[in-house]
User: Which sequence fits this backbone?
């Protein structure tokens, strides 16, 4: 190897190491910015829900004592014990300081620590959300891929019509329809959705079918766009089979935008648990949130909304951090 060639190789090695360090710095900077935005989102959500719940008509003290038993003196004394007679700024700072320490306060309505209520209801909500997410992604990718392969033919029309229909149906109406057909008429599943596997099927299907339609349409458009790329046409020209082209080149290049949609869908599924858990009388954070709103239980409402928002933000943070793993070019931009 000549001296000139050695110098070129050494220079290329220095460039490669510099690019590696630059990529690491950019990756670290991206993580720091995402974590900062997550903290700001949590702060904004906490302020927003703190103010909105206090705009709901009604007084939590009257709800606790009852309209007939609530004298002015007793109500004023209880309001002082709960700290509701202080300014909104003082109430928020006191609540936020305890939340940072992991203390969500004491539930007015349930007469229990809110952390215990969340710990008791969280597993059921996570079970429902995870089941619905798996079902939604699996059905959405299957129908979307089927429609993309059979573009502008009968399967494509049928699949997209079905996806549009499920996107248009309200979840509460779909849930009651599934109860009527599969629980009341056919008696395949229980009417009230419990935490068992049979009790999970109908709530998970109700929650998943709406987002499944959106996933199917997005997967179809993403696959059609990928099939028109130059490298796909080159692979076809080399004589690769249709399945090899689809699995190696089309599906792989379509995963990144689909991953974004899956991360966003989790927020829709978490918010959808509020309706689904109420329709199926299923335990969970969603039903706990509805009951707390009806009882004017401020601290429980604030804790439930904040936890749901943090789960959503954490999921999107994980999705953002997975981008460089699937496509390292993102870090270098």
Assistant:
């Amino acid at each position: 190897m000549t001296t000139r060639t050695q110098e070129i190789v050494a220079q290329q090695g220095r460039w490669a190491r510099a690019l590696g360090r630059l990529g690491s710095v950019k990756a670290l900077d991206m993580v720091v910015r995402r974590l900062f935005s997550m903290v700001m989102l949590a702060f904004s959500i906490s302020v927003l829900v703190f103010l909105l719940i206090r705009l709901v008509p009604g007084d939590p003290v009257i709800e606790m004592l009852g309209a007939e038993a609530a004298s002015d003196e007793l109500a004023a004394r209880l309001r002082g014990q709960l700290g509701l007679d202080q300014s909104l700024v003082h109430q928020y700072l006191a609540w936020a300081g305890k939340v940072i320490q992991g203390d969500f306060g004491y539930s007015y309505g349930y007469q229990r620590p809110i952390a215990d209520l969340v710990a008791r209801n969280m597993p059921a909500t996570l079970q429902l959300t995870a089941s619905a997410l798996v079902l939604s992604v699996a059905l959405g990718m299957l129908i979307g891929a089927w429609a993309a392969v059979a573009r502008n033919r009968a399967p494509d029309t049928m699949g997209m019509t079905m996806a549009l229909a499920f996107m248009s149906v309200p979840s509460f109406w779909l849930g009651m329809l599934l109860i009527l057909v599969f629980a009341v008429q056919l008696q395949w599943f229980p009417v009230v959705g419990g935490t068992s596997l049979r009790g999970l099927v109908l709530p998970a299907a109700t929650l998943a079918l709406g987002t499944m339609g959106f996933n199917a349409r997005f997967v179809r458009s993403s696959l059609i766009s990928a099939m028109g790329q130059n490298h796909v046409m080159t692979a076809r020209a080399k004589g690769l089979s249709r399945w090899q082209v689809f699995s190696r080149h089309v599906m792989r290049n379509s995963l990144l935008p689909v991953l974004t949609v899956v991360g966003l869908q989790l927020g829709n599924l978490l918010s959808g648990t509020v309706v689904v858990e109420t329709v199926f009388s299923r335990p969970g954070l969603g039903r706990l949130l509805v009951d707390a709103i009806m009882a004017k239980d401020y601290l429980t409402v604030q804790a439930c909304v904040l936890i749901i928002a943090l789960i959503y933000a954490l999921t999107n943070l994980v999705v953002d951090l997975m981008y460089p793993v699937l496509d390292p070019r993102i870090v270098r931009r």
Remarks:
- The chain has two domains: 3-100, 117-327.
- The CA atoms of residues 89 and 191 lie 45 Å apart.
- Residues 3-100 form one domain.
- The chain has a mean pLDDT of 76.
